[in-house]
């Protein structure tokens, strides 16, 4: 009898232990066969060095089986449990969803992570004194610098409106003159024999030539590598809005010029309030009607002093609509919308697309992740607009002019007119009223 009782107790103990173990199984190292779940993450935004915590189920415990991307960029996995992952966000990952992969199974987050960029502003070229002088960075003098473009070697070309010249800025900041003369005028020719009157926009072509928006001459000029300046379309004393061949087309104070991937030259015909295109020796009007403000189909839309345009990777066109104080967007299907800013309202405010405010945005550069870098002229700062339209201030202190180096709002500008991105994602800015070129190192 005693033996039977002992045997029964052994059996019951085994059953109890079995039930106890089954209630808290060890999670499979690779996540097992259960469906992968990503229920949330925190924080929703962060700067360089931010550690993100991801919550969910069935992550497993083997970090080697786990990978994470944020906006297509790989994050560094720090630690993994079956319900939480700790990871270091990739640098400069922009705005994008998380994509988690565990042992070949993939799941994406519902929300997007927003990377908070920081910019450190430093000196690059210019004495800070108005005038004209070529030479070393500290000796160089500029008139009023407007738009700027960079070639594949990092050499920049700037429209020096105040000196009626196109200037060349080397990678060490030293300067020389490509064409033009301080007297200004209108004349084709080489070097200082080629004359312009208030050149304002520059764009580099694949052959090394430079398209120039010759503002006060109402013309588009082309400057070749040997310094020869020619006229492409338009002429002084004949402003207008006529489309047609190069000899008959008219402009009225063109501002920004930009080549697309197919070689078409896009032109902000500023005082006409039009977006024009030059292709196959013909000038056509792409968008706009009369100066004003209206969204809609291409020719129903209205712009007020559009100053610059640029393209993202999806074929959208973004326009700095200067005197409407907003950023406009033209989609590939031909709809003009307001992307960020409060149209016709001047001010300074960061925030959601429809609540943010600008004061004469005048230039746009776009990086590979779709972030827009905007010169906010009369707010004396550089704004960053995310692909969802959210606006932040990258450098400068809104509505405060001055000259200071530093990070974020500690840097000060005075009427930043133009900007260009280099291959490493640094932004170079023509700080016009400070008579200098500044460099923003973005992290």
Automatic annotation (TrEMBL):
Coiled-coil portions: none
Residue spans crossing the bilayer: none
Every IPT/TIG domain range: 38-115
Pfam families: NHL (PF01436), TIG (PF01833)
Keywords for this protein: Repeat
Keyword match Protein biosynthesis: no
PANTHER family membership: NHL DOMAIN-CONTAINING PROTEIN (PTHR13833:SF71), PTHR13833
Record protein name field: NHL repeat-containing protein
Species of the source: Dyadobacter jiangsuensis
């Amino acid at each position: 009898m005693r033996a039977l009782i002992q045997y029964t107790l052994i059996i019951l103990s085994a059953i109890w232990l079995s039930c106890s173990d089954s209630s808290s199984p060890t999670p499979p190292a690779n996540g097992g066969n259960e469906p992968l779940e990503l229920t949330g993450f925190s924080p929703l935004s962060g700067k360089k060095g931010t550690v993100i915590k991801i919550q969910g189920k069935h992550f497993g415990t083997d970090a080697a089986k786990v990978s994470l991307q944020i906006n297509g960029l790989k994050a560094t996995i720090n630690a993994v449990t079956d319900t939480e992952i700790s990871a270091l966000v990739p640098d400069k990952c922009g705005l994008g969803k998380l994509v988690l992969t565990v042992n070949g199974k993939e799941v994406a987050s519902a929300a997007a992570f927003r990377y908070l960029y920081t910019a450190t502003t430093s000196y690059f070229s210019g004495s800070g004194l108005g005038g004209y002088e070529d030479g070393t960075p500290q000796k160089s003098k500029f008139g009023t610098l407007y738009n700027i473009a960079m070639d594949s070697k990092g050499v920049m070309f700037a429209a020096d409106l105040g000196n009626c010249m196109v200037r060349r800025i080397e990678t060490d900041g030293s300067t020389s003159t490509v064409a033009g003369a301080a007297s200004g005028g209108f004349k084709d020719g080489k070097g200082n024999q080629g004359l312009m009157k208030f050149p304002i926009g520059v764009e580099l072509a694949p052959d090394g030539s430079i398209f120039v928006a010759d503002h006060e001459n109402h013309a588009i000029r082309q400057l070749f590598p040997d310094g020869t300046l020619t006229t492409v379309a338009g002429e002084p004393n004949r402003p207008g809005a006529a489309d047609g061949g190069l000899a008959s087309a008219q402009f009225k104070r063109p501002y920004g010029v930009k080549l697309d991937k197919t070689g078409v030259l896009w032109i902000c015909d500023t005082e006409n309030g039009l977006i024009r295109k030059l292709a196959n020796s013909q000038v056509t009007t792409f968008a706009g009607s009369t100066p004003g403000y209206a969204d809609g189909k291409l020719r129903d839309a209205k712009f007020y002093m559009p100053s610059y345009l640029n393209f993202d990777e999806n074929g959208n066109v973004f326009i700095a609509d200067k005197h409407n104080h907003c950023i406009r967007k033209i989609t590939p299907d031909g709809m003009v919308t307001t992307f960020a800013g409060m149209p016709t309202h001047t001010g300074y405010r960061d925030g959601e697309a429809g609540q943010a405010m600008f004061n004469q945005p005048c230039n746009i550069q776009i990086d590979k992740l779709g972030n827009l870098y905007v010169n906010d002229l009369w707010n004396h700062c550089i704004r960053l607009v995310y692909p969802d339209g959210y606006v932040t201030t990258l450098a400068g202190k809104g509505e405060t002019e001055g000259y200071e180096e530093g990070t974020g709002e500690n840097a000060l500008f005075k009427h930043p007119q133009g900007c260009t991105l280099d291959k490493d994602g640094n932004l170079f800015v023509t700080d016009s009223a400070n008579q200098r070129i500044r460099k923003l190192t973005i992290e």
